[in-house]
Amino acid sequence: MTEIKIDTEFIKLDALLKFANLVSSGGEAKIRIAEGEVAVNGEPCTMRGKKLRPGDTVTLDGESVRIV
Description:
Distance between the termini: 12 Å
Number of helices: 2
Shape: globular
Order of helices and strands: EEHHEEEEE
Number of strands: 7
């Protein structure tokens, strides 16, 4: 599992996917989230603007990223 450090209170789901290089563009992030392919803390999430905080885990295509 990859750990991503953020220096702000939160990061939005679509921004995290781009920042962690799990998707190649914001458009791809939007589609993958809308189709329910992204899991946040083990639950499918379709909210592109979901606020993620340290301790949250995001999974896409078997790759997981944890926010610290």
